């Protein structure tokens, strides 16, 4: 057979695809849309790494902290700038804030700005401008009382939905040296761009996420090129009548599939471009990207462009092995050969064999062989698609009995189990992969989750004020807020053995916390407490350390602000003769303090300027926006106050991002496969329109037919999900073994993934009911 | 107009339009128990629409249909479905057998829809298949039998519930003359043996010859040939 012959037949197939009338067009469109969706998802996935790199580069380009802030003594010139970090949180979204005061007209410009705002003005990101203009941003507007005079350009933002602002100030210079967050700089951009190497286990996670998400897409594309196959076979039968042989018909079919997939590539590119634009307006867990940054890796995009049409031809040729197309429009399904189990088992076994050498490697021994990981997981997941048709055939072959709906469904499955399993394959693979990943996540979660130690029963928010801010009025403001149940305020300073202004500063120092008796009792077990009392803390953990040395009645100590060198306050204080001792307890922060506790009268009056504030707030969280009100109050009391919402645990951000990525990916993939399931369901129903009408004509209840459709989907799906659970649990166990973690099944994750898979099927069945009911109308019997 | 005395199924002044096309335009019809009535006419004349209206598959735009003294237009969809399940039988041009069920399961299907247990339904189905000379096809699927055999299986399916009215829409349209005649012989014999009325839609005179009476439909209007004579 010559290449010319192949080319001629493929061309003829392409011609039929586009000139085959309405039916032909519908088939090509279905295939193209299906392939297009898959291609778009592949392109989007391959674009994620570049988007994340661009995000990191944007972040580096505007970096001003900590590399510049740790050198606050930079000399003032006409190209320097004083900058202060004023980040905040609003409605669980981070807001990047900077106060700026240029030292001269040539002050280095931050990326995205054309000039700096004057004092009282601010330049905002587009997303922040939108939020401030909306009613949702009312409370944030109170917190940022500046006039909006401009918009930060794209180069100054790390994501399209980032909330950021630069506000002008005229009193920043005097804060240099007093506040950590204020510094003078002469250039933006990170000086040290060495990014931290990702933990091998996290690399493994990323690899598995990619394989798990992309395998079902490949399965979906394979299913999409077979959309409308029955109608195409009828057309090919007509070709047989006019003399084409069976090989020619196969090549013509391949030509049709090729055209559909090529059109799918075009659709995919369009969908990708649309999706890329849409991605610009989406924000997930504070991460957004600019459409321009979502660029597929050229090599991967080329691979998609070649692999998809090639796969389309291959799948069509494979699918047609089981079909005998005869002239006279007769298409009989060739007697299907009994499905063999042995070679189907080889795939997952080979996958296991590839992963086995990496058992017990853990994160200590470093790198996993990426090729072996990808190959092993691919083979295991491909095993699902190989095993499922065998399982469905074996099980439905043994089913019998039941009502009419059940009988109709079972018999249909017995007759063509392949057609029923094809769309299920994608869901099964996605669920298997997701179960394995969830198991892996649950297994290693402990390694990436830290207990913060904070006592959320005692407080839920903490506000830290900068040195010199009087605590009493701040405390009153918080106490007056609706939704604030209790305020515990402590002034915090450092007590050293010698002056803070001496060349090297004190060699021995302890912390001192000042508050009323109620506040002090949050940190120590006080036997008795009156204003004027001073306590030295005894820790159960050590022998007292510097406290034991310094807490000698009559000794003179120096109270100061140790945070910033050079400009420290220094207040002398003598340890009183009636010094009391107290046993330390964990404060609401979960910390055991050391040093001294003092009631307000025990403190020299001039010492208040040396104290920073630590305020713990117990909230009634049912009061709307109570946290935002606290943040606003904190800012009015002290612009540089640091407000945090407490959580009992905190997870590594990289771990959280991968986990979120998985959830989004799995949901997208399942929805995509759900769409393909719906298309193939509707296609099968359309093929049976006349039969359905006839069944209704002789009195079959619509409920019976609907139930039959449900069973036809539910049986293969149930088997698919069972198989997916088995493979998923195996893969999960293997991955945990590889990371040297104890193998345990996290059943809620397994059940939730199986539940999502089952939910997709239910949704598809519900969506296919209206067309089913329409097809069951007696009009289907009309021929004229 | 009141239905003719003794008529099992009668229609008066039926009108039905599909868009701008009048499929039925004042058609009339009546049939008595045990009677075989052929509805004839050219393609597109409205004969299949008349059959669908008479069987309660399609609701006419106006006019009345009475079955056994009951007005069908007052029946709900569920009641008409129940009627079709228990009192009517159907044979279509292409048997419309369910391809995934075996022949015996296809024949037993109407009984099973009526709630008859599977084994009893299949016993009754086999006995009808025997009468229609296709009992050896019981375990085969429709795709494995010839057109004539399939149509006989479809006739067995139509008769298995002992219907009082059998609707046959071009039952031999897809068969050669020899097979067509055999199917018609079996169909009419079986119907007469159970005193079932047969509404036979056809455009072939040799098929109509098996009927007791002919009604011709043209442009949606019917003409009873016996009365016309």
Automatic annotation (TrEMBL), chain A:
<feature type="transmembrane region" description="Helical">
    <location>
        <begin position="299"/>
        <end position="320"/>
    </location>
</feature>
<dbReference type="Pfam" id="PF02687">
    <property type="entry name" value="FtsX"/>
</dbReference>
<feature type="transmembrane region" description="Helical">
    <location>
        <begin position="371"/>
        <end position="392"/>
    </location>
</feature>
<feature type="domain" description="ABC3 transporter permease C-terminal">
    <location>
        <begin position="666"/>
        <end position="777"/>
    </location>
</feature>
<dbReference type="InterPro" id="IPR003838">
    <property type="entry name" value="ABC3_permease_C"/>
</dbReference>
<feature type="transmembrane region" description="Helical">
    <location>
        <begin position="341"/>
        <end position="359"/>
    </location>
</feature>
<dbReference type="InterPro" id="IPR038766">
    <property type="entry name" value="Membrane_comp_ABC_pdt"/>
</dbReference>
<keyword id="KW-1003">Cell membrane</keyword>
<keyword id="KW-1133">Transmembrane helix</keyword>
<keyword id="KW-0812">Transmembrane</keyword>
<keyword id="KW-0472">Membrane</keyword>
<dbReference type="GO" id="GO:0005886">
    <property type="term" value="C:plasma membrane"/>
</dbReference>
<feature type="transmembrane region" description="Helical">
    <location>
        <begin position="747"/>
        <end position="773"/>
    </location>
</feature>
<feature type="transmembrane region" description="Helical">
    <location>
        <begin position="709"/>
        <end position="735"/>
    </location>
</feature>
<protein>
    <recommendedName>
        <fullName>ABC3 transporter permease C-terminal domain-containing protein</fullName>
    </recommendedName>
</protein>
<feature type="domain" description="ABC3 transporter permease C-terminal">
    <location>
        <begin position="208"/>
        <end position="320"/>
    </location>
</feature>
<feature type="transmembrane region" description="Helical">
    <location>
        <begin position="660"/>
        <end position="680"/>
    </location>
</feature>
<feature type="region of interest" description="Disordered">
    <location>
        <begin position="56"/>
        <end position="77"/>
    </location>
</feature>
<feature type="transmembrane region" description="Helical">
    <location>
        <begin position="201"/>
        <end position="225"/>
    </location>
</feature>
<feature type="transmembrane region" description="Helical">
    <location>
        <begin position="257"/>
        <end position="279"/>
    </location>
</feature>
From TrEMBL, chain B:
<dbReference type="InterPro" id="IPR003439">
    <property type="entry name" value="ABC_transporter-like_ATP-bd"/>
</dbReference>
<dbReference type="GO" id="GO:0022857">
    <property type="term" value="F:transmembrane transporter activity"/>
</dbReference>
<dbReference type="GO" id="GO:0016887">
    <property type="term" value="F:ATP hydrolysis activity"/>
</dbReference>
<dbReference type="Pfam" id="PF00005">
    <property type="entry name" value="ABC_tran"/>
</dbReference>
<dbReference type="InterPro" id="IPR017911">
    <property type="entry name" value="MacB-like_ATP-bd"/>
</dbReference>
<dbReference type="InterPro" id="IPR027417">
    <property type="entry name" value="P-loop_NTPase"/>
</dbReference>
<dbReference type="InterPro" id="IPR015854">
    <property type="entry name" value="ABC_transpr_LolD-like"/>
</dbReference>
<dbReference type="GO" id="GO:0005886">
    <property type="term" value="C:plasma membrane"/>
</dbReference>
<dbReference type="InterPro" id="IPR003593">
    <property type="entry name" value="AAA+_ATPase"/>
</dbReference>
<keyword id="KW-0813">Transport</keyword>
<feature type="domain" description="ABC transporter">
    <location>
        <begin position="9"/>
        <end position="229"/>
    </location>
</feature>
<dbReference type="GO" id="GO:0005524">
    <property type="term" value="F:ATP binding"/>
</dbReference>
<keyword id="KW-0547">Nucleotide-binding</keyword>
<protein>
    <submittedName>
        <fullName>Macrolide ABC transporter ATP-binding protein</fullName>
    </submittedName>
</protein>
<keyword id="KW-0067">ATP-binding</keyword>
């Amino acid at each position: 057979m010559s290449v010319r012959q192949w080319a001629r037949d493929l061309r003829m197939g392409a011609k039929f695809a586009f000139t085959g009338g309405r039916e032909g067009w519908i088939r090509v469109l279905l295939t193209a849309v299906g392939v297009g969706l898959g291609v778009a998802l592949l392109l989007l996935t391959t674009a994620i790494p570049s988007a994340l790199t661009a995000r990191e580069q944007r972040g580096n380009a505007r970096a001003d902290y900590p590399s510049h802030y740790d050198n606050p003594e930079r000399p003032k010139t006409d190209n320097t700038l004083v900058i202060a970090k004023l980040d905040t949180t609003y409605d669980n979204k981070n807001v990047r804030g900077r106060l700026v005061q240029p030292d001269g007209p040539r002050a280095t410009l931050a990326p995205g700005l054309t000039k700096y705002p004057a004092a009282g003005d601010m330049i905002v990101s587009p997303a922040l401008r939108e939020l401030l203009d909306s009613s949702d941003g009312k409370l944030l507007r109170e917190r940022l009382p500046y006039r909006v005079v401009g918009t930060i350009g794209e180069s100054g933002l790390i994501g399209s939905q980032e909330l950021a602002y630069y506000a002008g100030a005229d009193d920043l210079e005097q804060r240099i040296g007093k506040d950590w967050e204020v510094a003078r700089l002469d250039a933006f951009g990170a000086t040290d761009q060495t990014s931290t190497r990702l933990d091998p286990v996290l690399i493994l996670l990323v690899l598995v996420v990619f394989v798990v998400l992309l395998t079902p897409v490949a399965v979906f594309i394979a299913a999409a090129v077979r959309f409308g196959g029955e109608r195409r076979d009828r057309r090919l039968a007509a070709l047989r009548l006019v003399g084409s042989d069976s090989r020619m018909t196969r090549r013509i079919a391949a030509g049709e599939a090729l055209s559909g997939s090529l059109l799918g590539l075009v659709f995919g590119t369009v969908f990708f471009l649309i999706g890329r634009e849409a991605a610009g307006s989406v924000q997930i867990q504070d991460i957004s990207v600019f459409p321009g940054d979502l660029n597929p890796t050229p090599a991967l995009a080329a691979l998609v462009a070649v692999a998809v049409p090639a796969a389309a031809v291959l799948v069509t040729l494979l699918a047609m092995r089981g079909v005998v197309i005869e002239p006279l429009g007769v298409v009989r399904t060739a007697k299907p050969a009994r499905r063999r189990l042995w070679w189907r088992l080889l795939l997952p076994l080979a996958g296991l064999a590839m992963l086995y050498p990496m058992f017990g490697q853990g994160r200590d021994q470093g790198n996993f062989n990426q090729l072996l990981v990808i190959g092993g997981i691919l083979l295991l997941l491909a095993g699902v698609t190989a095993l499922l048709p065998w399982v469905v055939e074996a099980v439905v072959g043994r089913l019998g009995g039941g009502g009419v709906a059940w009988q109709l469904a079972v018999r249909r499955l017995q007759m063509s189990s392949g057609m029923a399993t094809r769309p299920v394959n994608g869901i099964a693979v996605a669920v298997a992969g997701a179960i394995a990943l969830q198991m892996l996540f649950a297994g290693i979660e402990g390694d990436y989750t830290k207990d913060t130690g904070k006592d959320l029963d005692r407080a839920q928010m903490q506000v830290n004020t900068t040195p010199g801010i009087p605590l009493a009025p701040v405390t009153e403001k918080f106490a007056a807020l609706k939704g604030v149940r209790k305020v515990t305020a402590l002034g915090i300073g450092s007590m050293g053995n010698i002056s803070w202004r001496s060349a090297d500063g004190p060699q021995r120092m302890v912390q001192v916390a000042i508050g009323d008796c109620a506040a002090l009792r949050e940190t120590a077990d006080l036997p008795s407490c009156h204003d004027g009392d001073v306590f030295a803390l005894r820790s159960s953990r050590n022998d007292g350390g510097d406290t034991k040395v310094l807490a000698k009645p009559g000794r003179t100590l120096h109270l100061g602000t140790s945070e910033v060198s050079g400009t420290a306050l220094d207040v002398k204080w003598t340890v009183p003769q009636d010094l009391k001792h107290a046993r330390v307890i964990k404060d609401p922060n979960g910390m055991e303090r050391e040093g001294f506790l003092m009631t307000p009268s025990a403190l020299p009056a001039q010492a208040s300027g040396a104290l920073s504030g630590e305020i713990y707030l117990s909230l009634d969280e049912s009061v709307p926006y109570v946290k935002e009100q606290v943040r606003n109050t904190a800012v009015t009391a002290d612009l540089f106050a640091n407000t945090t919402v407490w959580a009992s645990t905190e997870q590594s951000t990289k771990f959280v991002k991968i986990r979120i990525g998985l959830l989004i990916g799995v949901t997208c993939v399942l929805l995509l496969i759900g769409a393909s399931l719906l298309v193939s369901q509707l296609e099968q129903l359309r093929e049976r329109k006349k039969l359905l009408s006839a069944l209704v004509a002789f009195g079959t209840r619509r409920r019976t037919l609907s139930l039959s459709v449900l069973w036809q989907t539910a049986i293969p799906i149930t088997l698919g999900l069972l198989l997916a659970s088995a493979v998923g649990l195996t893969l999960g166990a293997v991955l945990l073994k590889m990371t040297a973690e104890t193998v345990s099944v996290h059943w809620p994750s397994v059940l939730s993934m199986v539940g999502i898979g089952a939910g997709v099927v239910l949704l598809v069945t519900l969506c296919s009911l209206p067309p089913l009911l329409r097809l069951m109308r007696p009009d289907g019997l009309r021929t004229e | 107009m009141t239905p003719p005395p003794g008529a099992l199924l009668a229609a008066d002044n039926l009108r039905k339009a599909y868009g701008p096309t009048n499929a039925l335009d004042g058609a009339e019809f009546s049939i008595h128990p045990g009677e075989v009535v052929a509805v004839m006419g050219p393609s597109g004349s409205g004969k299949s629409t008349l059959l669908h209206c008479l069987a309660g598959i399609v609701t006419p735009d106006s006019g009345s249909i009475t079955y056994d003294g009951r007005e069908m237009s007052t029946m709900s969809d569920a009641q008409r479905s129940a009627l079709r399940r228990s009192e009517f039988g159907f044979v279509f041009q292409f048997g419309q057998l369910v391809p995934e069920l075996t022949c015996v399961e296809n024949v037993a299907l109407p009984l099973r829809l009526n709630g008859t247990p599977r084994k009893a339904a299949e016993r009754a189905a086999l006995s009808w298949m025997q009468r229609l000379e296709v009992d050896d096809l019981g375990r085969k699927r429709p795709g494995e039998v010839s057109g004539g055999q399939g149509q006989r299986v479809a006739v067995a399916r139509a008769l298995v519930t002992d219907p009082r009215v059998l609707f046959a829409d071009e039952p031999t349209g897809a068969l050669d003359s020899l097979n067509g005649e055999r199917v018609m012989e079996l169909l009419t014999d079986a119907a007469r043996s159970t005193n079932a009325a047969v509404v036979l839609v056809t455009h072939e005179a040799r098929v109509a010859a098996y009927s007791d009476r002919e009604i011709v439909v043209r442009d949606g209007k019917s003409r009873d040939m016996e009365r016309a004579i």
